[in-house]
Structures are given as structure tokens and as C-alpha cells.
């Protein structure tokens, strides 16, 4: 009888352990998301007014705050009259 109770206890404990560990494995990395509207504005970065490319109406553009293993989503809306390539 004691062997049966011990076997049942081990089975239940093992099942609970597997369920807890499997929930930890499903945890996702944090996600940060941004929306960029890229357009022209007039600014004076060198002291002379000139047309520059701005993000969300600001020059220089915003800083992306993320840590290693973060999922970063950036939705870019190109409002320029030419193609755009963003790199970082």
C-alpha cells in the first residue's frame, strides 16, 4: 500500500512539475513598438535653414529604447517623394 501511495505521489508531483516548467518555457521576450512618419521639414542643423528628413516632425529622430532580446516593431510611413532606407 505504501508503495502505491508513493508511486501516486511521485506521479502527481511529476505532473505538477512538468506543468510549471512548461509555463515558464512559453514566456515571450518583451516587445516595444514605434510608429515613424518620415517627412521633410525645414531645420538649421548647421546654422543655415535647409530641408532635412525628419521622423515624426523632429530632427534628429527619436531614440529607440530596447534591450538585448527585445522584439522591436517599427511601422514606417514614408511621406517623402522618394524611396527611403532606414538602417541601425
TrEMBL record:
Q: Name one Pfam family in it.
A: Cu-oxidase_3
Keyword annotations for this protein, in alphabetical order, are:
Signal
Q: Name one GO molecular function term.
A: copper ion binding
> Start and end of every Plastocyanin-like domain?
38-88
Signal peptide range equals 1-27
The superkingdom of the source organism is: Eukaryota
InterPro entries linked to this entry: Cu-oxidase-like_N, Cupredoxin
Assigned protein family: Belongs to the multicopper oxidase family.
Record-given protein name:
Copper-resistance protein
Source species: Trema orientale (Charcoal tree)
Amino acid at each position: 500500500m505504501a508503495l502505491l501511495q508513493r508511486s501516486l505521489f511521485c506521479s502527481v508531483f511529476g505532473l505538477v512539475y512538468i506543468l510549471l516548467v512548461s509555463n515558464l518555457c512559453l514566456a515571450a521576450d518583451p516587445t516595444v513598438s514605434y510608429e515613424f512618419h518620415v517627412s521633410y521639414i525645414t531645420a538649421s542643423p548647421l546654422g543655415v535653414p535647409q530641408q532635412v528628413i525628419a521622423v515624426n516632425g523632429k530632427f534628429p529622430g527619436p531614440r529607440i529604447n530596447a534591450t538585448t532580446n527585445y522584439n522591436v516593431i517599427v511601422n514606417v510611413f514614408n511621406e517623402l517623394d522618394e524611396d527611403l532606407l532606414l538602417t541601425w
